[in-house]
Amino acid sequence: MVNPQGERCPLCGSEAEPFHRVSNRAMRRDFVHCGVCDLVSAPRRFHVGPDAERHRYLEHDNDPDDADYRAFLGRLWEHLRPRLEPGSHGMDYGAGPGPALAAMMREDGFEVSLYDKLFHLDRAALARTYDFIVCTETVEHFDDPAREFDTLDRLLKPSGWLGIMTAMLDDWAGFPEWHYHRDPTHVGFYTERVMRWIADRHGWEAEFPRENVTLFRKGSRDAERREARI
Questions:
Q1: What residues contact residue 130 under an 8 Å CB cut-off, 6+ apart?
Q2: How far apart are CA 147 and CA 154, in angstroms?
Q3: Closest CA to 173 of 55, 20, 13
Q4: Is residue 143 exposed (0-12), middle (13-18) or buried (19+ Cβ within 10 Å)?
Q5: What is the largest CA-CA distance in the chain?
């Protein structure tokens, strides 16, 4: 299939092929698929601006004291927490307006820094490295996932953990009926194959302890060698 727009995958830079189109009263968007890393994405011309994205975030009920929301975030935290040393310093990357997971981690005795391009634009938090990073319901918003995952790699200490939670499909055949792409702020969509490609790209190990949860561990020796060359 010819790609008339010459779209490139925002994760690996390969040519991406037309995949799906939504055209109705609520939304018109095209999606492309990369045969190299498997990412499905919405081309940049369909991305909403930061004001619209901020407004959409504020529509979410992310109350740090809400028991149901805590249980939702616990799907990641219950698997990451046992892998961490007591008192480790972590980051909530893409913490949003109500950083409930950061509150949960602090309650469990961990030091946590916040970063979010819309709500916690703390440049100082990007100037250090971390024992672990959590990124919940965020990677689907990355308009430049290659740059963002490079940033996460830089922020993570050797042998550190990165926990990601995002909705994923087992098979792209289910994409047309999937609710997840109906949110106009969601521009990148993942499978286990995409996550394994990301792990290989950065020299990480990948685990999938439950549905929609990915745990990456950064290599120690390879990471130290890479950092020594910088």
A1: 89, 90, 91, 113, 155, 156, 157, 160
A2: 11
A3: 20
A4: middle
A5: 54
User: Which of 181, 139, 145, 138 has the alpha carbon at shortest distance from 19?
Assistant: 181
Distance separating alpha carbons of residues 28 and 23, to the nearest angstrom: 4
What is the tens place of the pLDDT at every residue in 150-209? 999 999 999 999 999 999 999 999 999 999 999 999 999 999 999 999 999 999 999 999
Q: Which two tokens stand for residue 149?
A: 């995952």
**Domain limits of the chain?**
16-229
Contact between 147 and 153 (Cβ < 8 Å): no
List beta partners, residue 218.
204
Tell me if the pTM is above 0.85: yes
**Beta-ladder partners of 112:** 90
Provide CATH code, domain 16-229: 3.40.50.150
The first and second tokens of residue 191, run together, are 């499978």
